[in-house]
Structures are given as C-alpha cells and as structure tokens.
Design brief:
Distance between the termini: 33 Å
Helix content: 10-25%
Radius of gyration: 17 Å
Largest sheet: 12 strands, antiparallel
Number of helices: 4
Strand content: over 45%
Length: 222
Amino acid sequence: MGKGAAMNWTAAAATAGLLALVGCGSDIDATADSRIVRDYLSKVMQSRTNSVPQITRARLEADALPRIKVAIDSRKMTAILGKLAVNGPVVTWVAADGATIALRDGVAIATRGLGDDLMSSYAPTANVLAQAAGTLTRSHYYIDGRDKGLALTLRCEVRAMGDETIEIVERSYRTRHISESCTGTDVAFENHYWFEKGGSIRRSTQWISPEIKSVQIDVLYP
C-alpha cells in the first residue's frame, strides 16, 4: 500500500479496519460507542490538511474524552486521534480520515490506512521497556506491493536516559526517559518513551515502517 492510499479512508472503512485489527469476538470497551466516534470525527480536521485544530487544555478538559496527537515527521502531518476501541491492553485510536493506530499500553503494535502499514508486531511490553534491562528482540510484519508477507526481525538495546520534565498542551509532566536502539537487515532506528511515575507512557517516538519512519505520540487527555 503506497502513499496514495494513506488518507483516503472513510468513517465506515475505519470501523471495518478496527474490527479487523482487534479481532472477531473481542470485547469492545463501552467507551468506543458510536456517540464518541461521531463526536470525534465531527470535531477534528482531517490529517490531509496538514494541520490540526487549536487544542487547549481548557478544550481538552471540557470535552473530557481521550485524545492523543500523532505527528508523522516524514510526511509533515499531524492529527488528533480519538479512542475507538479497547481490547484488553490494546487501544485502537482513529483519525478523522479513518487511519488507525493500535497501542498496547502505549507501545505501537499495528497501523491501518497510512500506507506501508505495520500489519502486526511482536513488540516489548511497556513494563519490559520501563525496566531498561539490556537486549530484547522485536518482529515487525508487513505486506509488500505484491501482497506478500514480509517479516523484519530486530535486535534492540534498551537504556535509561534519566528523568525529564516535558510539556504537552500547557501542562508539565515529570517523566523517566527510556531509549530503545534497534538494528535489523538494512534498517536501524531509535524509539524513545517518556514514562510517568505510575508506569504509563505520556510521550513516545516510535518507528513504524521504512516509508513512514518514526511517529511522535503525545497523550493529550486524560
């Protein structure tokens, strides 16, 4: 899937992509009801405009709905995403154009609708990353232009980078910065995670695929 397919989803396709992503018979959380999805899609500008609506802390508090911001530097695109479904520790987030990203406790495990999508992955858990305990292995799975599956195996070194205070939409967060340096066949990248005291990831930069490269994910609310 190439760039031309990246921003052509509809709301209906988003729902179909979600069901494929979380699996048949999964327990969809009640927060993913149609009212929240419609509310989100009606309020957020589409990512293909290369801009996002003005987000303030007051607006986030007034809406009181889960939001993340995803920035794709390689495409100069930023979007605000709303929570669409929860399947155990996996939360699927949707953009206004229908593209989705699935995060397991904040760690990216799949995307849909971006082009060169991460179809699935065997990735470390947030708890494992937070321990910053040396070497681990990742596996990423893709589909090439001939609809053939491709697997990318990566060896990663995890290190603690120290305490940092970050700011996201008018609010400061005290965090612990963890880096994950990965190498594989013809690819090398670094992921970064900013953990809060309770163990949740407030901000991260995570590598998705050779074309998309890294995305920055900020948890805006709650």
